[in-house]
Structures are given as C-alpha cells and as structure tokens.
Amino acid sequence: MGQDHVRGLGLARMYVIEATMPAGTTNAQAREMMQSLLADRFKLAAHWTTRPTSGFALEIAPGGFKLQSSDAAKDPPVKPHSIGCPAADRHCNIGLCCGLSSALSDVCWTLTDALGKPVIDKTGLVGTYPFGVMLWRGDDSTDSPLPSLPTLLRDQYGLVLKSGTVPVRVLVIDHAEPLTPN
After folding, report:
1. Rounded CA gap, 99 and 128, in Å?
2. Within 10 A of 122 (CB to CB), how many other CB atoms are there?
C-alpha cells in the first residue's frame, strides 16, 4: 500500500498505483484519467502557475543561427553503441542521442537536464534542425578534445545561453488527503 519516508521536515508517503488503460488511449486521455484518479482517491486539488526562477534563456548568438531546417522523418537511424565520449574525456556530456533532427524545445530539455536549471527557448525558431549528437567537455576534463558547452552552442549552432530569471510553469498542490480505501 504505502511506505513512509522522512523527507526534510515533513513526512511523505509513497504509493504504487497499478492501472491499465484501454488500447488506443492518447496521452491527453491518460493524463485526464490520472487526474481523475488522484482527485478521487487523494482528494487532490492543484493548479498550474508560472513563477520566476534562476535559469537560462537559449537565444540566437550574434552572427545568427547556423542550421537549416530539416525533416526528422528523413533522419538515418543512429547505430546502437555508436555514440560515446572520446577516450580523452570519458566524462563528456552527450545530448540529443536519440535523434539527429530536433526541435529547440528538445535542445532546451537536454540542456535543462545537463545544467540542472531550467532552459527556455527564446530563439523564436520553429520546426526541427539537424543538431545531431551534441558532445561537450566534461566538467573535470583538462585535456579534452571537445569544446565547452558555450563554445559548442556558439560555434556549431549559433546559439548562446543567457543566465538570469526565467518563467517556469510549476504545479501547485492546493489540497491532498491520505489515500481513501477502495
């Protein structure tokens, strides 16, 4: 049923929910079903809002964006085990490893994960572009053949990260109760 964990100053409870969905259920329908389940079983009430937080804006660098739009459906498949860090930098960073053409939103997700802070797209670009596999120097690398992340973004793609306060959507939980029995 549940397992208690002490987190910070409060007590949190973890539940495992097993459910099945009809064949053909869309992502939107699945989200709606999960929201209904959480509202019914936990009396969960929540809302989305936007809050300013420390992060980065991805913008077009001086000199302009360097890629032409592409069609992700025409990308050749990436061979298994063909992507890796060079021997001189085994701790390099790899981004967008599962596709060659990507939308800027995918690039922002990759950078958010790598940097540990939100990255929002301020380029105004739409569509997909041939970013390929992004490789940049690891934080502890001193003799890496790879560029730093800022150098990679600027020189290969014509992009720049600007540090500052960015708007981020957050889910605010207004109310929740312990699990009700079936």
Report:
1. 11
2. 15
Alpha-carbon distances of 75 from 49, 67, 135, rounded to whole Å? 37, 15, 19
**Whether residue 27 is found in the same domain as residue 65:** no
Q: Is 56 exposed, middle or buried (0-12, 13-18, 19+ CB in 10 A)?
A: buried
Amino acid at 104: L
Q: Find out whether 45 and 39 touch, Cβ atoms under 8 Å.
A: yes
DSSP label at residue 154: I
Are the C-beta atoms of residues 141 and 77 closer than 8 Å to each other? Answer: no
Q: Which is nearest to 53 in space by CA: 171, 163, 173, 174?
A: 163
Instruction: Give yes or no for a contact between 159 and 58, defined as CB atoms under 8 angstroms apart.
Output: yes
Residue 10 shares a structural domain with residue 75: no
Residues 78, 102, 64, 160: is their CA dihedral positive or negative?
negative
Instruction: In whole angstroms, give the CA distance from residue 135 to residue 102.
Output: 15
Q: Are residues 28 and 79 in the same domain?
A: no
Q: Express each pLDDT in 129-147 by its tens digit.
A: 988 888 899 877 778 889 9
- CA separation for the pair 95, 14 (Å, rounded): 32
Assess whether pLDDT exceeds 90 at residue 55: yes
Containing domain of residue 35, as a range? Answer: 2-42
Which value, in Å, is the radius of gyration of the alpha carbons in the chain?
A: 21
